[in-house]
Amino acid sequence: MACAQTGTGKTAGFTLPMIEILSGGRAKARMPRSLILSPTRELAAQIADNFDTYGKYCNLSKALLTGGSSMNDQIKLLERGVDVLIATPGRLLDLFERGQILLTDIKVLVIDEADRMLDMGLS
Q1: Domain-wise residue ranges, the chain
Q2: For every one of its 123 residues, what pLDDT tens digit does the chain have, with 9 covering 90 and above?
């Protein structure tokens, strides 16, 4: 668990070790190897951008699952297999309940801003 001010590198603090852990393997269809749960789509998009920057040369795939985006496009990404899944709770639950995603192969779990999610009623 880590607490720090905005702009101090918390995202790098979990993204860089995740990239190292996942660099030796491949994802299977609908079975991501890691999950980053974020309270808002804006924060999730920011994490996805950071992942693109930090993992530019690592050949890891990612999917961003948030409301307000095409669910069909997100399902297509999942069917190809993703190493890193970045999601908001609502969209993740929706796809999970529809049987579009399996969480049995998760090796790394990050709950970003867990206190904020609890404040929002996701306890």
Answers
A1: 38-120
A2: 666 566 667 788 899 999 999 998 888 888 999 999 999 999 999 999 999 999 999 999 999 999 999 999 999 999 999 999 999 999 999 999 999 999 999 999 999 876 677 677 754
Full-model pTM: 0.87
Domain 38-120 sits in CATH 3.40.50.300: yes
* Alpha-carbon radius of gyration of the chain: 14
Instruction: List, as own/partner pairs, every contact residues 44-49 make where C-beta atoms lie below 8 angstroms and the sequence separation is at least 24, other chains included.
Output: 44/86, 44/87, 44/88, 46/11, 47/11, 47/15, 47/86, 47/112, 48/86
Measured in degrees and rounded to the nearest 5, phi and psi for residue 115 equal: -60, -40
